[in-house]
Amino acid sequence: MQTTCYAWVLTWGSTTVKVVLLDEHDNYLYKKYVRHYANILDTVYTLLQEAQVGHEDDLVHVCITGSGGMAMAEKVRIPFVQEVIAETRAVKKRSIQKQMLSSNLVVRMRRLLT
After folding, report:
1. What phi-psi label fits residue 46: left (phi over 0), alpha (psi between -120 and 50 degrees) or beta?
2. What is the C-alpha to C-alpha distance for residues 32 and 79, in angstroms, rounded to an integer?
């Protein structure tokens, strides 16, 4: 069953990956900040799997930020947003592309790993 829309932001840079999933009241449903040790795709995929638990059919507003995120955003067709812009949008509320969390993004990430 499809439920409320959430905000989901992935940020990755030269050494770390951050994933945040917020509810409609901007409360954290999931947040994690980890070093990727140059294994970016596996790290992001693992975090996406963790973040989707219990939210597989929920709609989310998704964006990718960070110095390492632009190329990945293009590959998985998710909007890339500069970090400062993403923070500004978060304050003003989000209007970023809706994705089905399990059936779209996680599947596309898995394809990049194989």
Report:
1. alpha
2. 21
